[in-house]
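Board notes (copied after class):
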Amino acid sequence: MVERCEEEADMVILKRMSLVFAALIVAAGIGWILIGPEWRALLAHQPYGRDVLFWNQAQRDAGFRMIDRIPFVIESHAIAHGDTARDLPEGEPLDLGLDLDAYLAANRTAGLVILQDGKVRLERYEMGFRPDGRWTSFSVAKSLTSTLVGAAVKDGAIRSLDDPVSDYIDELKGSAYDGVTVRQVLTMTSGIDWNEDYSDPQSDVARFDQQEAEPGRSALATYMAGLGRAHPAGEVWNYSTGETNLIGVLVSRATGRNLGGYLSEKIWAPYGMAQDATWLLGNDGHEISGCCIQASVRDFARFGQFMLEGGKAGGQNVLPEGWIEAATVTQADIGSPGEGYGYQWWTWDDGSYQADGIFGQGIFIDPNRNLVIASNASWTSALGDTGGEWEARKAFYKAVQHAIDMEAASPLGDAVP
């Protein structure tokens, strides 16, 4: 009798445990559904760590839209939007005369917004991305950082672009940066030896974020101060994310503000961006100013419109007179016919210019056509050279320009083949 009672008690316990286990499975399943597709994709393809250059394709697809939401990987500062969003009215649909679906799929484009005359002519989202989502900018952030230099000059916080950069960043004194001007850093002509090879784990662009932070010192500036000289200052252009990192430290030191707060105050809130953005931080808690602002595609397009409209926000001139004209024309020869480099903007001889980030991020601005093209993507390689995405996007920009020109040439203003 006792044994039978014990057996029955064991069966009751097993049944209860089975029910609890089943309930846990159901709860986990419900939770898996409720967290949404973005978190499910991220958890299924968890990043190895902070170094996005060496994530695989699935990790990039999941992580580029979520990188500021995973603090166990990297922290960020908020870029607050204001109370009123700037309207982007709908314009006439733009007929590009090409297979747009095929282009977006081949170029692994997540979001695309085309503005002309401040109106939305075309807007598309793919890869499960949404209009209210945030996607990382990579080096598109360089152009926003350089614009903050202009704001700091307008505010009187930076006296002159011809000041030695070490006047503002003490860590650079006694280094190869002695005598290098703010302007030379802006145009990446400092002559400092920097390796921007995205495929090399030992390159400077891969290693700078590993610099240990010291109390009261910028880890970014400390890393840069340890580099040697490759050329005389002002003579040779060399693309360097490190230079933009210094520009960000310069703006913070000169204004006494973090970059996220300063960008919000000067542009993001008064111009009317619709959503908060974020800016990723380095090990020392300072924004990685050469990289990684997370924002919606529409707000990236709004920034392009801000540039088209002469750098005014909230009815105020944010930038000094002539800044945009100087920033967006060739200041440095990059050795590519028809192309150049301004103040952290890539320039074209037809008067257009662009902010460009690895893996397919971009803001293309054409003042002659009053045109902005903002796009985010997850290319198969950093530079888009492996899969041909870079050349395809360049051709796409040309196709948009051509379509607008054909509209203008049409007697009725309609698109023609």
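Comment from the instructor: The first helix runs from residue 2 to 34. DSSP finds 13 helices and 13 strands in the chain.
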